[in-house]
Amino acid sequence: MKFICLTLLIISGITDSRSEQYKVVGPRDPVFAAAGEDVILPCSVKPNISVVDMRVEWFRLNLEDSQVHLYDDHVDKYIDQSEPYRGRTELNHQELQRGNASLKLSSVRVSDEGLYKCFIQSKYQYDDTTVNVNVEVVGRPPVISVDGFDHSGGLHLQCGSEGWYPKPDLEWLNSEGVSLSSETTETHRNEDGFSVKHTITVHHRDDKIHCRVKLRHHVLETQIITTKLSQLQNEHSRLQKEHSELQDKHRRVQNEHSQLQDEHTQLQNEQSRLQDEKRTIQHEFSVERDQLSECLKTVLPKVNVSLDADTAHPQLIVSRDGKEVRSEMTQTKGVDGSKNRFDKYLGVVGKDGFSSRCFYYEVQVKGQTQWYLGVARESVKRKDLISLSPEKGYWIVGLRYGKYQARDSSVYSLSLNVNPQRVGVFVDYEKGLVCFYDVKSMSHIYSYTDQCFNEKLYPFVSLGYERNENSTPLIICDD
Ligand SMILES: *[C@@H]1O[C@H](CO)[C@@H](O)[C@H](O)[C@H]1NC(C)=O
Ligand SMILES: *[C@@H]1O[C@H](CO)[C@@H](O)[C@H](O)[C@H]1NC(C)=O
Ligand SMILES: *[C@@H]1O[C@H](CO)[C@@H](O)[C@H](O)[C@H]1NC(C)=O
């Protein structure tokens, strides 16, 4: 009985085990998963018997602590599930009845890439299959940039794209879709994935150049219209030409500028020199003008000048009223030689002197060829040859040898526009001014300025020195 039972058990066991004979099958090819999306990792048993009562376990190969999903005792068990897969795995329990133990993995990450084991165990046997998961990350659209132009007119282009996984392929295509070979290629890997960068130089004028980045069935493409670029290039070379022309021009202008600056400096020097000169002249002019206007604006009544015959040189004849004097060539009879007379100059002074304010008188010199006139200090020396200068107490103008003269420290020749017929003498005692002018033309002859008078001043007229054959008188004008 015991034997029978055992036999039955064995038979039924054999029958059982035969009825449960199965193989676990997975996909032949790798499974491609796009990052961020969901993916099904296929796994099923053949024949398609129910695996509801079995243990289904998914785990990563070659990784420790790598349980991905566990179904056992009719429930999903998450106790030992690896952290990165928390909440992202799902077995369809209905599908389990049909022998389908495919795992749904959501929000795929790059780190999910690798080999997975699908392990299915019944009471009597177990089997597994391996699923190869490849994760893809589609990067950003490629960007073409123009790097410039070379001397032969080639157009340098650069195309780059970032954020791919795994490394994508990049290629250049012309407008007919023919692949063009890149000049340089660069690939970088960082947390963001792979970035690629290729350069090319385009010589013929293709309408369009494409840059295509491809990762299996993912393709992103950008194109550039090179006709516009060739216009750009023409523009560019035109601008370059203009630029260098402008640079030349700039240099020329700079040279001219510095020349002009030099000239300018010279002119400025010249100008300041001229300004100095002008100031000097203006100053002189204003002094003269002031003196003249001083003289001319003064319309003073003439003082009543009478010549003092007692001071006259013995050869002079002074009229009875003291208004005229002339040269006689011979000594006048009855002249008292003891008096303080002039004995070399044919001079005579007025009877009255002045020691304040202003005074003015006029002398007619018309027809006379030698004369001096002006004022003299009371204490002047009348004898001998003396200098008729301010230093010696004389302020005069005169005519001798056809030349008009005044005297400072030396004889000072005057160039006059007129030959004075009547000379006005103006004295401002306080200001120290003695001023001569031609009465008829009202023009200035000469001025002594800033003189210091500390004695009485007397009108002084003279018919020259020692001899005068011209008997024309000098006449004091009262009219
Ligand atoms: C297996 O189950 C999954 C869902 O978990 C389903 O998407 C897939 O189509 C099933 N496979 C077959 C062969 O029916
Ligand atoms: C198993 O597959 C066969 C055909 O291969 C099909 O007829 C049968 O319905 C399937 N059984 C289940 C439970 O899906
Ligand atoms: C000028 O003075 C003299 C005497 O010195 C005198 O005879 C004469 O009348 C005076 N003339 C006038 C205009 O005052």
TrEMBL record:
Domain B30.2/SPRY intervals: 285-479
Entry keyword annotation includes NADP: no
BP-aspect Gene Ontology terms: regulation of cytokine production; regulation of leukocyte cell-cell adhesion; regulation of T cell activation; T cell receptor signaling pathway
InterPro entries reported for this sequence: B30.2/SPRY, B30.2/SPRY_sf, BTN3A2-like_Ig-C, Butyrophylin_SPRY, ConA-like_dom_sf, Ig-like_dom, Ig-like_dom_sf, Ig-like_fold
Residue ranges, annotated region (Disordered): 238-277
Keyword Oxidoreductase listed: no
Protein name, per record: Butyrophilin subfamily 1 member A1-like isoform X2
Origin organism lineage: Eukaryota, Metazoa, Chordata, Craniata, Vertebrata
